[in-house]
Design a protein that fits this description.
The chain is an alpha+beta fold. The chain is built from six helices and seven strands; from the N terminus they run H-E-H-H-E-E-E-H-E-H-E-H-E. It is globular, with a radius of gyration of 17 Å.
């Protein structure tokens, strides 16, 4: 028991060091009456792999994250469905200055680790690293402890819903994105301080069209 407690203490200390100098980002209120109709968004949806390096403005960042997996009802349910309402998908936000975790309850970004980790997602597609924001979708498979045989399937399914929300939001508001599965999983998991139960599913680089 003492060894476990010590390990957790050390892990928390290391995570705090990694996030040093990053502050919580309080997101502004999302605008819920913007964008084109759902049919127009579907008609315009496309995968874009080249991005302007211009940073997303505060409104676009706020709206993007709320659309991805924000809270849309008083009971805490989300814009994206999840198997058994386990809400297993966490949205990590990679930007030039560091990595953050989206907190839907507070509609804020919590610091995770300092430094630019976008190249760990881009791999050989160098243009992806130019996107000002990369959303990394991580499923906490431990939340499916009662259906362990289906945990990874459910996690992948739920991440797909979130990614589709991102795609449609971008399509309807003139932003560029592409859903991807490739990334340097081992290195990225370390950079994001993920546990063994947290599985890297998908990522969506997001930016303005080049």
């Amino acid at each position: 028991m003492k060894k476990v407690s010590l390990f957790l203490l050390v892990s928390c200390f290391c995570a705090a060091l990694q996030a040093q100098n990053l502050e919580v980002v309080e997101l502004i209120t999302p605008s819920k009456d913007r964008g084109s109709s759902i049919m127009k968004s579907l008609a315009d949806r496309q995968s874009v792999r080249e991005f302007s390096t211009k940073k997303l403005n505060k409104q676009d960042l706020s709206d993007l994250l709320w659309a991805a997996n924000g809270i849309n009802r008083p009971d805490g349910r989300r814009t994206a469905p999840s198997a058994m309402n386990k809400q297993d998908v966490d949205v990590y936000v990679l930007m030039e200055e560091g990595a953050y975790l989206y907190d839907p309850q507070k509609h804020a970004l919590k610091p995770v680790s300092k430094g630019d980790h976008r190249k760990l997602v881009a791999g050989r597609q160098a243009s992806v690293a130019e996107a000002p924001v990369i959303l990394v979708l991580v499923s906490d498979l431990a939340k499916f402890d009662t259906v362990k045989d289906k945990a990874q399937l459910f996690g992948a399914m739920d991440a797909g819903y979130v990614s589709q929300n991102i795609d449609l939001f971008c399509s309807g508001t003139g932003l560029a994105t592409v859903p991807r599965a490739s990334m340097e999983a081992e290195e990225l998991a370390k950079a994001l301080n993920l546990t063994a139960d947290q599985f890297l599913m998908l990522n969506n680089p997001v930016g303005y069209p080049k």
